[in-house]
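Why does residue order matter? Because the sequence determines the fold. Keep that principle in mind as you read this record.
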Amino acid sequence: MMNYIQDSRRVVIKIGTSTLLHSNGKMDLRHIGMLCRVITDLRNAGREIIVVSSGAIGVGLGKLNMDSRPDEISKRQALAAIGQCELMFIYDKFFGEYDQTVAQLLVTMDVIDNETSRNNVVNTMNELISMGAIPIINENDTVATKELEGHNIGDNDTLSAMVAELMDADALVILTDIDGLYTGNPKNDPEARLIPVVYEITEDIVKLAGEPGSKLGTGGMATKISAAQRANAAGIPCCVIAGDDPNNLYTLFDGEGIGTIFLARKGK
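Structure:
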């Protein structure tokens, strides 16, 4: 089963908010720098990397020394605008240290729903990849609102699966603050054990999802399982691994068992 991962050429890597920030909301610069180095190295090894990055609102919160996400949509949009600028500056700085060019793409559900704009996004990303650049994608939170039911993506786990499907990726990797799917909540269940492989996402698997994630982000294991379902339906294996150590990406692509792999029902 690890051949699916080792042999993957085009890979979507989703970076969660908790992977980018300290618990106090400030950017974890050492960790981000290490992550950029590993991703660049994977790119140098011949893989085509597409990054879907959360963190804009979380970075905005830290920039303004705020403790938690506000309820008002307009405030979250303003924080996203502040944080997205800062986040891309940091990505450009650290990737640039390894001579790796990056590019920013902000999308909304309206863009993906429309055939013309969707094709434009795909063509742009393909051109960027052919130029050796790494596209860094986020939902355009400054204009996307939850009030537009059915026209917002809502979380970047879902977005990463959409991007993997659109770009005909060979694998989707989700970096998060837990090292995979467990039989119970490892924070309060000492008997909980890691599930290394999920061959089919059943109702019982969905029930293991638990509660939403950190106060700085929007996701949780439920959104990751949903993303895995979408990716698997497109024939794309999905790997959920801990993002606390960027070297986990090396472990994964070296073919060693790590995290939870949701295997696609059909081959690519």
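The first strand starts at residue 10 and ends at 15.
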